[in-house]
Amino acid sequence: MSTADNRVHVLDDYYLAITLLITVAYQLAFFSIAWTFKFDKLTDFAGGTNFVVLAILTLSFYGHALARNIVVSLFIMLWGARLSGFLLFRILKTGKDDRFDDKRDKFFPFLGFWVFQMFWVWLVSFPVTIINSPAVQQYPQHSFGTGSDIAGIILWTIGFVMESVSDVQKYLFKANNKDKSAVCNVGFFAYTRHPNYFGEILIQFAIFMIAVSPSAYGSVPSGSGAYAAQYSAILGPIFLTTLLLFVSGLTLQERPGAKKRYESGQGWEEYSRWLKRTSILIPFPPALYERMPVIVKRTVLLEWPMYVFDPAKHADQGKVREREAEEGEANGEGRSSAREE
């Protein structure tokens, strides 16, 4: 480690090595607790708070932090702290995390999740890590308040409100509704089926927009390594968006969720109506969305065929017939009882 002009150089000028080492150590520490005690409650907490740790450390390495550095670091810290706090609260209420039912007692599959979480934290932190690094801070910076800065603040605020409020809305809906088959179509959920995902995507691209300002407005010379690194940091929000669209978000929620409701018959009619009226991700007025051509929904509005549930293709018809038979028997017994009375 060396210092020059109040800038701290640790392993490399972009802080990528030191943040990776810190992330690996931080996640392994929590993994050891989770594995030893078969404890699910700290998993998401470890992920969210890791962002806070990296932002604080990279910001503190620089002796004279600029307004832009403070803002992007604060934004990712607020997001990470709120997310980890909410998920910790929720898991304490539910008791366990169903994602680990097939991994909790298997060392390498369980470790695999934590390794993936290491990569997620490290990569999504790129915009903040790189702007706080000596490679970028060696150049004189434009004053905070560029168009990119302002647009980023606006988008971050919208995203943070959407993600935070929708998490609370859904939690309260489930907690206060005795009918477990009821569809959460209140608040932001009337305009998008996944307002928390949409908010999270906005947050990460907003942070990138602010963080890239030194290169976008000429403070960092084009052709330099710092310039390339700043623009390469867009991999962070792209990676998070890819996860939500193709890996751990919509693909696990959309078709599987509809399939489960259709086969069980629990609130299917209401749920089917909600699907037709509500945009999958981008907020959209339900009355207009319902009237949009299918081709527009399947392209521009992101409701791609991979998410769509078709009962004829995707449902287990044996389960459906079994459920319908049970309902028929129950209705028959009900009518017999009524005649006897």
Report on the architecture of this protein.
- The chain has helices at residues 16-37, 43-61, 67-94, 107-124, 126-131, 134-137, 147-176, 195-211, 213-216, 225-232, 235-247, 250-264, 268-277, 286-291, 294-297, 311-314, 317-340, and strands at residues 2-4, 7-9.
- Strands 1-2 form a two-stranded antiparallel ribbon.
- By secondary structure, it is mostly helical.
- Strand 1 and strand 2 (7-9) form a beta hairpin.
- It starts with a strand and ends with a helix.
- Helix 3 runs antiparallel to helix 8, helix 7 runs antiparallel to helix 8 and helix 8 packs antiparallel against helix 11 (235-247).
- The protein is built from 17 helices and two strands.
In short:
The protein has 341 residues and is an all-alpha fold.
Which whole number gives the mean pLDDT? Answer: 91
Distance between the termini: 87 Å
Element string (H = helix, E = strand):
EEHHHHHHHHHHHHHHHHH
Low-confidence stretches: none
Please state the overall shape, judged from the principal axes of the Cα atoms.
globular
Characteristic terms for this protein:
about 0% strand; 17 helices; mainly alpha; about 350 residues; about 70% helix; two-stranded antiparallel ribbon
